[in-house]
């Protein structure tokens, strides 16, 4: 591959090629999308990349893009295809006169790729907590272990006020649902294990609603990605073993049930159903 430490600079970002990864550093200029500025940099292992493409861009540019494997990056998983093209963190735009150089790096990088298909775990580091942002109806905070929502009296629904401020341990969650504030009715909803929240997110105490100037992409999406990565790292909730009942105790309860049945206090159907339930506990 290209020499370790080689750098390809484009508009808004520069790619530094290393032996097993690409370090992408984003500029902090006023023309750089706020999401990229907020990310600062991303180290992408080559094992997370499935392909590299080079295509003509707009107004005399070429675009070098790394296509990541599904499931490799918590940011892209949380975004779920909602990012605008200009906010794509793996898209490097260069002047057209640098096409030959870009093609060289694209070929060198592609030659090193060996992995395809979905990744079984996140390979790109998630944005680090602690994180917080202001939604329309409350403030969301994440310290790495717990997600907290503190409601604003000016925006929260009566249902959320009634439920009160909320805290959710990562172990309680199965994932996150992020809807971009740049589309109608954006929100961040925490998905709880074994629970389904109200259909309306403004009534769900496990969700915050976005609005004009509230929950911007560069704040809410890294937040969602950090929570999602923590949830995946936590793994599935442990399944508690169901203790087996003492057979003697079960036999005694069935005997007592039989006495109630003979006395006419339990119907034939009730006796059969309850006996089956007791036997299932053995």
From TrEMBL:
Domain SHOCT residues, every copy: 252-279
Domain DUF4429: 15-109, 140-227
One Pfam assignment: SHOCT
Taxonomic superkingdom: Bacteria
InterPro entries: DUF4429 (IPR027860), SHOCT (IPR018649)
Name the record gives this protein: DUF4429 domain-containing protein
């Amino acid at each position: 591959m290209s020499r370790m430490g080689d750098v390809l600079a484009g508009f808004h970002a520069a790619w530094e090629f290393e032996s097993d990864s690409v370090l992408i550093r984003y500029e902090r200029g006023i023309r750089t999308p706020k999401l990229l500025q907020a990310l600062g940099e991303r180290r992408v292992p080559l094992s997370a990349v499935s392909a590299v493409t080079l295509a003509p861009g707009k107004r005399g540019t070429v675009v070098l893009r790394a296509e990541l494997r599904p499931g490799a990056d918590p940011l892209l998983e949380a975004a779920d295809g909602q990012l605008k093209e200009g906010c794509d963190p793996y898209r490097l735009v260069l002047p057209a006169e640098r096409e030959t150089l870009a093609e060289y790096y694209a070929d060198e990088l592609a030659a090193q790729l060996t992995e395809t298909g979905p990744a079984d775990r996140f390979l790109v580091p998630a944005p680090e907590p602690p994180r917080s942002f202001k939604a329309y109806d409350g403030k969301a905070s994440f310290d790495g272990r717990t997600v907290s929502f503190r409601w604003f009296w000016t925006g929260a629904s009566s249902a959320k006020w009634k439920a009160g401020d909320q805290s959710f341990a990562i172990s309680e969650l199965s994932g996150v649902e992020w809807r971009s504030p740049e589309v109608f009715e954006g929100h961040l909803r925490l998905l709880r294990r074994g629970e389904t929240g109200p259909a309306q997110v403004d009534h769900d105490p496990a969700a915050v609603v976005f609005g004009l100037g509230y929950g911007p992409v560069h704040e809410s999406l890294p937040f969602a990605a950090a929570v999602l990565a923590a949830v995946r790292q936590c793994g599935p909730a442990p399944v508690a073993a169901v203790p087996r009942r003492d057979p003697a105790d079960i036999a005694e309860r069935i005997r007592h049930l039989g006495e109630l049945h003979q006395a006419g206090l339990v119907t034939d159907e009730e006796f059969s159903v309850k006996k089956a339930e007791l036997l299932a506990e053995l």
